[in-house]
Amino acid sequence: MWKARNSMIFNNERLNDDAIVRLLQDHINLWACRAPRCIDVEPLNLWCQTVVDVN
């Protein structure tokens, strides 16, 4: 969301809902990859799927 806002403010780009969802999914995947191995990221991945599948 922050990147979409910055894109709008600084680059005069308006991202549609699909683009914002893709940015959110990419950001979540990045953080899931950085999580320590002792943390189960499956709940995060499942939550991400519910956010992405809002159609």
Automatic annotation (TrEMBL):
It comes from the Eukaryota. This is Uncharacterized protein.
